[in-house]
Design a protein that fits this description.
The complex is a heterodimer.
Chain A lengths: L2 H37 L4 H5 L13 H6 L10 H32 L5 H11 L4 H15 L5 H26 L2 H9 L4 H30 L2 H6 L8 H4 L11 H23 L14
Helix pairs in contact in A: 4-7, 4-9, 5-7, 7-9, 8-9, 9-12
Chain B lengths: L3 E10 L2 E11 L4 E5 L6 H9 L6 E6 L2 E2 L10 E4 L11 H12 L3 H15 L14 H14 L4 E5 L7 H18 L2 E6 L2 H7 L2 E6 L2 E6 L1 H6 L4 H6 L6 E7 L3 E4 L4 E3 L13 E6 L4 E3 L12 E13 L3 E8 L2 E8 L9 E7 L4 E4 L9
Parallel strand pairs in B: 3-8, 3-9, 6-7, 7-8
Antiparallel strand pairs in B: 1-2, 1-4, 4-5, 9-10, 11-12, 11-14, 12-13, 14-20, 15-19, 16-17, 16-19, 17-18
Classes of the chains: A mainly alpha, B alpha+beta.
């Protein structure tokens, strides 16, 4: 066998090993998700079986039917929870992104006293675990009378997300060359117009990713929501999962079904937005 | 009328002065080049005229109107950036028409003016492309087109050619000159390349450390540099500059070598004065191989050893040793020369320059 054919064989073998490795890695990542979907479709006996039953014997949508059947028939107020989750997540995302844009732009473009300390301070707030804040927040919210309200949770989530959105959006505005906004100003724009006409469209993909992250944080958050909400009027989907736990039993199948209901919108949204996350949009703006 | 007038224009960042109270009057339709080394304040001056940089003191007038505190959009200027600064999310057509769109121009008017500009610059076939799909030279043209479309009082160019390769730079330089002849606007052009400044400008402003060293036509700054700095900055290869002491009608160099004091300076120096002697490469040449400056020539003959030669085809740069260092001379109609060979050199002292060693100012009256 000559040198070239052995090199070709080696390259082919390496390619196969590479693909098998990737398959195993993806399997590990996807298995929990797959397990949740499977568990929502089969009886509790099978879920709890040891050793585990990999291939379901029978598949039924009972858990989904029961979930929407109303209270008393094994159902939970899923529509209300969904609505609460949506209102709270969307509102807090919009506010966090708006503040993140203003803050990120200021950090990227302006020089001001104490800039790096303020930035560091914002980042430090991320080091405090949310759960550590839940008790003080609980007392504060009770005093203010905003416990168990949309407003209370939106406020908490905005505070949680703003440092992150500022940090992320700051990075994207830094990538937009300063010359472009200046050129727009010379072309007749006010500073405000230059921002919306030139800098915003170019930082758009970054702002969209900040929005996805903020939305998913709110959508999936459990620790704070479980402390700060208690009734159907404010409880979010992750907190709603607890409805499936009783004193002595846990309805694993129902819980998994609700988890699937939770995952679908998040997955859909991420899928829609990720198509717009086109990188390299700024290429060609300046000499590159 | 679009005259530009800078009066005691100053820029400071905190305690650090960048531009120190410069005065400059630019006539209508004049092409002015601001030239100088990096950090001399030329770009800052341009940005102050554009309104992108606040001024610390002084005033800027455009067309007789003081614009000190007006935003860029109210100054009726346009600017070509070093980086081109094209909007990457817009096509060439949208880039060209952007200023008109912002101004709320009618669609037909916008189309007509974009078509005019693209015809002048040969961009017709590129109108639907994005900046990322253009070559460097094409981007440069779009940037100029965007400036033309606005029909501004004053064009500002901030080192527009420095990102292009040498060949394209020469080509674009010619295009800019043609463009100025066509659109007849006042142009302020910043560059660190003295060749660009010399070839394009009606008048050149040479800046150094935030001060203006000299303002003059290309011929003036080349033939009558006001300071030692200008003498060294303008001209390629640069002027040979060497310190000497005046001693009884002679210039005595550090090595002890002597040259006669050029006649035109005799009245302005006295024995013991420390001076800087300057002679351009064109005015020192192997005898019989240079440009004669005519009847007024005051040619001094001297034999010098050759160190290196750099043949350029139609001419050869000959480095000869004098006063312990290399002097550059330009040989026309080249003949073969060897390193170490001693050749008779002609020094045309009627073209020589003398500057005061201490102040750097010319000693020409």
């Amino acid at each position: 066998m000559d040198e070239n054919s052995s090199a070709r064989l080696k390259r082919r073998l390496l390619g196969i090993v590479h693909r098998v490795g990737l398959f195993l890695a993806m399997l590990t990542i996807c298995l929990p998700g797959l397990w949740i979907v499977l568990s929502s479709l089969r009886p509790t006996v099978e879920i709890m079986a040891k050793p585990p039953v990999w291939i379901p014997q029978e598949i039924s949508f009972d858990a989904y039917i029961a979930m929407f059947s109303g209270i008393g028939k094994g159902g939970i107020p899923v529509i209300e929870y969904f609505r609460n989750s949506l209102i709270i997540s969307v509102t807090s995302t919009i506010i966090a992104v708006a503040i993140g844009m203003a803050g990120g732009y200021a950090f990227a473009r302006y020089r001001f006293r104490g800039k790096s300390s303020v930035f560091l301070g914002l980042m430090l707030t991320r080091t405090v675990p949310g759960i550590a804040l839940s008790l003080p927040l609980f007392f504060l919210y009770v005093r203010l009378g905003i416990i168990d309200t949309h407003f209370g949770l939106i406020l908490a989530y905005v505070a949680l997300n703003v440092p992150f959105t500022i940090w992320l959006i700051d990075g994207f505005f830094r990538q937009v060359p300063k010359d472009l906004a200046e050129a727009a100003q010379i072309d007749g724009c006010t500073r405000w117009q230059a921002f919306w006409q030139v800098e915003f469209p170019l930082a758009g993909p970054g702002i969209a990713s900040a929005a996805i992250f903020a939305f998913l944080t709110c959508w999936n958050e459990f620790a704070l929501a479980s402390q700060l909400t208690r009734s159907v009027s404010a409880k979010t989907l992750p907190v709603g999962l607890l409805d499936y736990t009783a004193e002595f039993t846990i309805d694993w199948r129902g819980m998994c079904a609700l988890a699937v209901v939770m995952i679908i919108p998040a997955l859909t949204l991420t899928y829609i937005v990720q198509k717009h996350l086109v990188g390299g949009l700024t290429s060609g703006a300046v000499k590159g | 009328m679009a005259t530009v007038s800078l009066k005691k224009l100053t820029k400071r960042y905190g305690n650090i002065g960048i531009v120190h109270g410069i005065d400059l009057d630019i006539a209508d339709r004049e092409f002015i080049a601001l030239v100088g080394p990096s950090g001399c304040g030329k770009s800052t001056t341009l940005r102050m005229i554009a309104g992108l940089e606040e001024i610390s003191a002084g005033s800027i007038e455009i067309g007789g109107r003081i614009v000190n505190d007006l935003p860029p959009r109210s100054r009726n200027i346009s600017m070509v950036f070093q980086s081109y600064a094209l909007y990457p999310h817009m096509t060439v057509r949208e880039n060209l028409g952007f200023s008109l769109k912002i101004a709320g121009a009618a669609k037909e008017d916008m189309e007509r003016r974009v078509a005019e500009a693209s015809a002048i610059l040969g961009l017709d076939t590129l109108l639907d492309r994005r900046p990322s799909q253009l070559s460097g030279g094409q981007r440069q043209r779009v940037a100029m087109g965007r400036a033309i479309v606005r029909d501004p009082d004053v064009f500002l160019f901030d080192e527009p050619l420095s990102n292009l390769d040498a060949k394209l730079r020469t080509q674009m330089r010619t295009e800019i000159k043609k463009l100025h002849a066509k659109v007849q606007s006042t142009v302020i052009y910043v560059t660190h390349d003295q060749v660009e400044a010399m070839t394009l400008a009606d008048r050149i402003v040479i800046m150094r450390d935030g001060h203006i060293e000299q303002v003059g036509t290309p011929d003036e700054v080349f033939r009558r540099p006001a300071t030692r700095f200008v003498a060294g900055f303008i001209g390629s290869p640069p002027m040979n500059l060497h310190e000497a002491t005046v001693d009884d009608g002679q210039l005595v160099f550090a090595s002890g070598e002597k040259l006669p004091l050029p006649a035109q300076f005799k009245a302005n120096v006295a024995t013991g004065d420390k001076v800087v002697f300057g002679l351009r490469p064109d005015d020192i040449y192997p005898t019989g191989h240079g440009i004669s400056s005519g009847g007024a020539a005051d040619v001094h003959q001297i034999e010098l050893p050759i160190t290196v030669t750099e043949p350029l085809g139609n001419e050869t740069l000959v480095f000869v040793e004098f006063n312990g260092t290399d002097w550059v001379s330009r040989m026309l109609n080249p003949r073969p020369l060897r390193s170490g060979e001693r050749v008779a050199m002609s020094l045309d002292l009627s073209q020589a320059h003398l500057f005061a060693a201490e102040t750097g100012k010319t000693l020409r009256s």
